[in-house]
Design brief:
five-stranded antiparallel beta sheet; 17 strands; 17 helices; 5 domains; about 20% strand; Beta-Lactamase; alpha+beta
C-alpha cells in the first residue's frame, strides 16, 4: 500500500504539517514565555526605580538609621499581590532592615529564617554593583518565583544597599499552559484536515501520471505518435505539454547548443586577454581581436581561409612545441612585444579523437605589474642604500674609537657627535617608513575635527620662522578673508604644510622669496606654497612623489632629507579626499598646491 505515490503524498503532507506545527508551537510558546517573563521583570524594575526616586530615605547613606521610615514607606507603597520587596543593608554582613512581606514582623531580626526566600548569589552579585535576576523553582511546593536584586549606589558609585524583589509567576505559567492546550488542539485538527486533503490531491496527481507512464512505454517501443490529453494548467498539465512536444524539444536543444556556442564566441572575442589557437603544424586556427592586434595580423584571419597563417614563434621568441612531449606544451613565459610586457600562458587542447589537436596561447598584459615590480625593487635598493651610508659611517667611527683609546676628548666628542647624527638619520628613515606603512594599510587613526586653516598655516609659519630668518628669506602670507573651517586631522595636515614649506626653504637660496596662499575654490580649500628656488627638471616631475626619489640626491642627503616626505604628504592628503599638484620650472622655482575638500558637517 505504501509503495503507492498516493500514500506517499499523504504521509509527506502529514509529516510536513506535523513538523511545522510542532516547530511553530515551540517557537510561539518560548517567545510568549520569554515575553511574559521580560514584561514581569520590566514591571519589577520600574517599581524599584520609582520607589528609589520617590523615597527620600533611600538616598540616606546609612539605611540602618532610617529603617523604620523605610518600612513605613513600604507599608504605604502599592505592590502587586504577587510581589514582595526586601530592603537589605550591608553593615558587617547583609541584613534585612525592611520588607513588604506581610509576615515580616515574624522574621524580623532572624536573617537565617528570612534568607530562605532569597538566592544569596544574586545578593552577592548586586553588591558588586550589577543588577542580577533569576528564576527559582520549588519542586516540593510547586512554586515558581522571579527574583531581582537591584543595587542602590551612592554618589561615588559604591553600593550602599540592595532592594530584593520576588514575584510569583504562577499566573504567567498558567497562561502559558493554556496556550499549549490551544496549540495542541489546533495541531490535531490541522492533521486531520491534512489527511483528507492529501488523499484528494494525491488522487488528482496519480491519474495523469499513470496515463503518461503508459504513453511513455509505447514511445520506448518505437511509437512516437503519442499525445497525452492536457486536463489542467498546473504542473501535471505542464508535464503533459512537455511530453507532447518532445520531438520539438529536440530542435530546441540544437538551437540552445548553437546559442551556447555564440556565447562562447562572444566571450572569446571580447575578453581582455589575447587568445590564439594553433594546430600541430603551427598554423593559426583561431584568434580573438586582442591577439590579432598584439601580433599585428590581418583582421580577416579565420580558420576557414584556404591560405593559413603561421603563428610567429620567432617574433615573440617562443620555442617550437614538441607535441611528443606533453610537459613541454604547458607553461608560461614573459615576452615584450612593441614595448608592452606580456605573460604568455599556453596549454594543449584535444580534438574529437582525444588526440592533441594543438595549443591554446593566452597573452596577458602585465606592463603595469612589471612596472610596479621594478618600482618595488628600486624601493628596496633605495632603502638599502639609504641605511648603508649611515651604518658604514657609524661602524667606521666606532671602530676608530675602539682602536684608538687615547684620542683626545675633543676629537672623541666629534666622533660621537657624527655617530649620534647618523643614528638620528636612520631613526628618521625608519619613522617615515613606518608612517608610510600605516598609510598603505589604512592603520592610521585620524582625529577628524573642525580646524581653522588660517591658524594652521600661521602656526606652521611660526615653527619655521627660525629657518626662514637663518637664510634671510622673504615670506609672504595671503589668506582669503572669511575662509571656512574644514574638518581635518590637524597633525596630519600640519605635517603636510610643514613638509612642503620645509622643502621650499631648503631648495630656495639665501635672500629668496617664499609665498603661502590659501583660498576657497569649487568647494575646496587650496593652499599654495610658491618659491623662486632651484626648481625641478621636466624629466623628474612625474617621479617627484615616489618614495626615496630625489632630484639632487647628494644635496638632499646633505640637507638631511629622507626622500619620503613628499610621498607621506601625498598619501595624507589623499586620505582626506584631496590631492597635491606640482608646477615647477628648473632654476626658476616651484609651486605646490594642497587641495582639500570642504566637509559639509562642522565636526565628523
Amino acid at each position: 500500500m505504501f509503495a503507492s505515490i498516493r500514500w506517499k503524498f499523504i504521509i509527506v503532507y502529514f509529516l510536513l504539517v506535523f513538523i511545522a506545527m510542532v516547530i511553530v508551537g515551540v517557537f510561539i510558546i518560548r517567545s510568549f514565555e520569554s515575553q511574559q517573563l521580560e514584561n514581569r521583570t520590566n514591571t519589577m524594575v520600574k517599581q524599584i526605580e520609582t520607589l528609589i526616586s520617590t523615597s527620600s530615605y533611600l538616598s540616606e547613606d546609612d539605611w540602618s538609621q532610617v529603617s523604620e521610615e523605610i518600612q513605613k514607606t513600604l507599608n504605604e507603597w502599592r505592590f502587586d499581590g504577587t510581589e514582595t520587596l526586601y530592603v537589605i543593608y550591608n553593615e558587617d554582613i547583609p541584613k534585612i532592615i525592611a520588607s513588604s512581606y506581610s509576615n515580616y514582623e515574624d522574621i524580623k531580626g532572624h536573617n537565617a529564617l528570612a534568607y530562605k526566600f532569597f538566592d544569596p548569589t544574586l545578593i552577592l552579585k548586586a553588591y558588586d554593583g550589577d543588577r542580577s535576576e533569576g528564576i527559582i523553582r520549588d519542586m516540593n511546593e510547586g512554586t515558581v518565583f522571579k527574583h531581582l536584586a537591584y543595587p542602590v549606589l551612592d554618589e561615588v558609585g559604591q553600593v550602599k544597599g540592595v532592594l530584593y524583589m520576588t514575584a510569583d509567576l504562577k499566573d504567567v505559567y498558567k497562561t502559558i499552559d493554556d496556550s499549549k492546550i490551544i496549540l495542541t488542539s489546533a495541531t490535531v485538527l490541522a492533521l486531520g484536515i491534512t489527511v483528507v486533503l492529501g488523499f484528494l490531491i494525491a488522487s488528482s496527481i496519480t491519474g495523469p501520471i499513470r496515463d503518461v507512464t503508459k504513453k511513455a512505454e509505447k514511445m520506448a517501443k518505437g511509437d512516437f505518435d503519442q499525445f497525452v490529453e492536457v486536463k489542467s494548467d498546473d504542473e501535471i498539465g505542464q508535464l503533459a505539454n512537455m511530453f507532447n512536444y518532445l520531438t520539438l524539444k529536440l530542435k530546441d536543444t540544437i538551437q540552445e547548443m548553437d546559442l551556447e556556442r555564440s556565447k562562447l564566441d562572444t566571450i572569446f572575442n571580447y575578453m581582455a586577454d589575447g587568445v590564439v589557437a594553433i594546430d600541430v603544424e603551427g598554423y593559426i586556427i583561431h584568434a580573438n581581436p586582442i591577439a590579432i592586434n598584439i601580433l599585428e595580423l590581418d583582421e580577416n584571419i579565420s580558420e576557414d581561409l584556404d591560405n593559413k597563417v603561421a603563428f610567429p614563434m620567432g617574433k615573440i621568441n617562443l620555442k617550437e612545441f614538441d607535441y611528443g612531449d606533453l610537459s613541454s606544451l604547458e607553461g608560461d613565459q614573459i615576452v615584450e612585444i612593441n614595448n608592452v610586457i606580456y605573460r604568455l600562458k599556453y596549454a594543449p587542447f584535444r580534438n574529437e579523437k582525444n588526440d592533441i589537436g594543438g595549443v591554446i596561447i593566452v597573452f596577458q598584459d602585465i606592463t603595469e605589474q612589471h612596472k610596479l615590480d621594478n618600482m618595488r625593487k628600486e624601493f628596496v635598493a633605495n632603502v638599502s642604500h639609504e641605511l648603508k651610508t649611515p651604518i658604514t659611517t657609524i661602524k667606521s667611527y666606532t671602530e676608530t674609537l675602539m682602536e684608538y683609546k687615547d684620542l683626545d676628548e675633543e676629537l672623541s666628542r666629534k666622533f660621537l657627535s657624527v655617530i649620534d647624527n647618523e643614528c638620528d638619520r636612520m631613526a628618521r628613515i625608519v619613522r617615515d617608513l613606518l608612517q608610510l606603512s600605516n598609510l598603505d594599510y589604512n592603520k592610521t587613526k585620524w582625529d577628524m575635527r573642525e580646524h581653522s586653516i588660517e591658524k594652521l598655516i600661521k602656526d606652521a609659519c611660526l615653527k619655521l620662522d627660525f629657518s626662514i630668518k637663518e637664510k634671510n628669506q622673504e615670506l609672504s602670507l595671503e589668506i582669503d578673508e572669511n575662509i571656512p573651517n574644514i574638518v581635518i586631522d590637524k597633525d596630519g595636515i600640519e605635517q603636510v604644510i610643514l613638509n612642503i614649506m620645509s622643502n621650499a626653504i631648503k631648495y630656495t637660496p639665501n635672500d629668496g622669496k617664499i609665498s603661502v596662499t590659501a583660498k576657497e575654490s569649487d568647494s575646496n580649500i587650496i593652499i599654495t606654497v610658491k618659491d623662486n628656488g632651484i626648481g625641478i627638471p621636466d624629466e623628474d616631475k612625474d617621479r617627484i612623489f615616489e618614495r626615496f626619489y630625489r632630484v639632487d640626491k647628494g644635496r638632499s642627503r646633505e640637507l638631511g632629507g629622507t626622500g619620503l616626505g613628499l610621498s607621506i604628504a601625498k598619501q595624507i592628503v589623499e586620505a582626506h579626499g584631496g590631492d597635491i599638484t606640482l608646477k615647477s620650472e628648473y632654476n626658476k622655482g616651484t609651486e605646490v598646491s594642497i587641495i582639500l575638500p570642504i566637509v559639509a558637517e562642522s565636526v565628523i
